[in-house]
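Q: I'm building a small set of examples for a reading group on sequence design. Run inverse folding on the following structure and report the sequence directly after it, with nothing in between.
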């Protein structure tokens, strides 16, 4: 299998040529930076910082870039997640008058508003992002006020009970459990953990959910298949309980 570094090198050069004059910086974040990257499962997570907001014309250019990359590296097709955001949008947090472009596993390339949901990613890139093109992330991107990151995480947590209703494949259910584990630990300890690390710590905090958390972790890291049986009722109950617990703790903080 082609290594992630080979794919990133190919992507970097293709994006540099095609987006000359528009791409201010390209940064890697996620598990390949934070740890616990699984070459058979994990995605490549990137933030592309642009000189101006993306539009439909740029979307056509990006769609062709991603299609070409998928053809050259079919084992990584559908596993490259990129958010395209203008520097002005990041500076104008929450950027209500700006749009971003995004492509992620199971989600085609599209435009969407630059809401406060995005600041969790921007803050992570500012603090820990690995530079592929442009200046260091901390030099280009403004720091995000910690209280705003915390508020954005609370919004994510508040929305999860509604989001999980549609998560019928076991992969989506595993993702829901592990993402709530990470949110709980981030809000409690102030630092971002990998999915595996957060799952391990979450078992101590919610021992009655240990079996479900272990199932979610093992499905994610041991190459589970979406033909495997899911645990939707349990996952929904877990999400509701943990979401409520997080929000209650935040109100008392």
């Amino acid at each position: 299998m082609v290594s992630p570094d080979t794919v990133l090198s190919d992507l970097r050069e293709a994006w540099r040529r095609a987006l000359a004059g528009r791409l201010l910086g390209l940064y890697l974040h996620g598990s390949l930076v934070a740890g616990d990257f699984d070459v058979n499962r994990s995605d490549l997570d990137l933030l592309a910082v642009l000189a101006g907001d993306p539009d439909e014309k740029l979307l056509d250019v990006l769609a062709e870039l991603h299609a070409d990359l998928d053809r050259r590296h079919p084992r990584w097709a559908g596993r490259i997640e990129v958010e395209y955001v203008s520097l002005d949008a990041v500076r104008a947090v929450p950027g209500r008058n700006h749009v971003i472009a995004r492509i992620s596993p199971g989600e085609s390339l599209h435009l969407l508003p630059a809401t406060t949901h995005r600041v969790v990613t921007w803050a992570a890139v500012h603090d820990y992002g690995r530079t592929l093109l442009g200046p260091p992330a901390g030099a280009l991107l403004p720091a995000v006020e910690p209280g705003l990151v915390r508020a954005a995480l609370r919004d994510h947590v508040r929305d999860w009970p509604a989001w999980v209703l549609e998560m019928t494949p076991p992969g989506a259910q595993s993702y829901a459990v592990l993402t709530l584990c990470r949110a709980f630990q981030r809000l409690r300890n102030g630092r971002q953990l990998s999915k595996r690390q957060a799952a391990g710590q979450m078992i101590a905090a919610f021992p009655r959910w240990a079996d479900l958390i272990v199932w979610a972790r093992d499905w994610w890291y041991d190459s589970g298949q979406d033909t495997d049986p899911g645990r939707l009722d349990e996952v929904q109950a877990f999400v509701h309980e943990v979401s409520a617990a997080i929000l209650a703790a935040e109100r008392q903080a």
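The chain is about 55% helix and 15% strand.
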